[in-house]
Amino acid sequence: MTTQPDHESPAPARPATLHELRTALSRYGLPGDREAFEQALAAALDSSPIGDLAAVAEVIATYRHRLTLRTSTEAMDSLAAPIGGQQWTPAADVFARLRAAGGDR
Questions:
Q1: Does 32 score more than 80 pLDDT?
Q2: What is the dihedral of CA 34, 77, 69, 9, to 10 degrees?
Q3: Whole-number percent of the chain with pLDDT over 70
Q4: Can you give the pTM of this predicted structure?
Q5: Given its phi and psi angles, is residue 102 left (phi above 0), alpha (psi -120 to 50 degrees) or beta?
Q6: Sign, CA torsion 63/68/73/74
Q7: How far apart are CA 53 and CA 58, in angstroms?
Q8: Looking at beta carbons, which pairs linking 25-33 to residues 24 or more positions away fall under 8 Å?
Q9: pLDDT in tens, 42-71
Q10: In this structure, what are the phi and psi dihedrals at residue 86, rounded to the nearest 5 degrees?
Q11: In the prediction, which pLDDT does 95 show?
Q12: CB 70 within 8 A of CB 30
């Protein structure tokens, strides 16, 4: 059984260490975020020349940013906001494409 994100807890402080980032990804990230982070981190570490860990720092910054967006109420509210006065849903998109293709007869 996989751990699901904890949507009831307040947003975490910005992670300052790898341990804190891993913990936050496990608790607040989307399913698979922690595993994807570990794979990307390992790949960046393995391909980085000794003394140049810019790729590793980029992976860490990317996942910190994703976590910040994921736990930001403002970011999540903006994603849920109507576009052009209409709320987008996957089903509405499918029906609109069908109508445009002449499937609504």
A1: yes
A2: -60
A3: 75
A4: 0.64
A5: left
A6: negative
A7: 9
A8: 25/63, 25/67, 27/3, 28/67, 28/70, 28/71, 29/5, 29/66, 29/67, 29/70, 30/5, 30/70, 31/2, 31/4, 31/5, 33/63, 33/66, 33/67
A9: 999 999 999 999 999 999 999 999 898 888
A10: -125, 140
A11: 75
A12: yes
Token match 């860490």: residue? 60
Q: Alpha helices of the chain — where are they, by DSSP H?
A: 18-28, 33-47, 54-71, 73-80, 90-100
- 54-71 and 33-47 helices cross at what angle (nearest 10)? 160
- Contact between 15 and 24 (Cβ < 8 Å): yes
- Give the type of residue at 55: A
Q: And the tokens for 3?
A: 């751990």
95: tokens are 């029906």
| Alpha carbon separation from 65 to 9, 72, 86 (Å, rounded) | 19, 10, 28
